[in-house]
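Table 4 source record.
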Amino acid sequence: MIFFVLSGFLVGGKLIERCQNRTFNLTQYTVDRSVRIMLPLISALLLQLIVEIVYDKPIEPLRILGNLLSLQGIVVNSEIVVLWSLSYEVWFYIIAGAIAVWMLAKTKKQIIWSYILIGTSFLVFSHLKAYYIFIWLTGALVYRHIPIKSDTKKIIVSLLFSLMLIPLMQLSSGSRTSFHVTDILGPHSHSIFEVAFGLLFGVFISQIVVYSPRHKWSVTLNRIGTKLAAFSYTLYLVHLPLRDLMFYFGAEKAEVLNSYTIILYFAFLLIGLFGSYLIYLIFERNTKKVKGFIFNLISQKRKDQQQ
């Protein structure tokens, strides 16, 4: 849910702003979003392919292709469990881009294509949780209401209530617990908690982005967070295949809890982080270069057509 709100804030908010300023460029938007998604996704699927070969599991090309096209949870299963969220993310981008094209359309052809993409998106979300769109939109809408100065009370209240909703979301998610909130508040309580969390966390994000670190601890936290954020997307996508490879080479789950197993746990954790970072260096770090290469190709093609 945090990922969806942040995505709505960073992508959807800027998209709305560009539409209002009439500076939205479909080619730039498509290349930017496609490369941003595809490089880490390809790295994760390649790593998962290695896992399946090592474990001698059957390789399903159609499922891999479906995941590349972000159709997991729609027509195919997820190749990696965490990829369920990526199908939502990609279709958020598609429907938002299609609406932007519709709003700024100058030709009948653009209007027709926007309707086709919007209609396709509606069909897709009939297989997904459609209310997640509202969580993404929350992030986009609060982007338009970023205050000049942060309000400490709003930061504390929104964060506090967001944290309070996390256990409620977990208890109502159908997980293996002896107590289920849905038994008391009804079967739709989980979706209500998720939407409420999105709204509250959206308020928190809009306030915290204008906060300037002043104390030594906050400056340090900001610096560390910035470095970790650089490869967080890759880490999210590849951590499970890396875990499976580590398990194959002997990193089994401990049966007892003691000082040795705790040290071992953090050692494995560092190995996983280091492995994710190496994959980031090969793939995601080159996002800007790949975008530049594609834009140069497009620019050259247009020049050739003009000549």
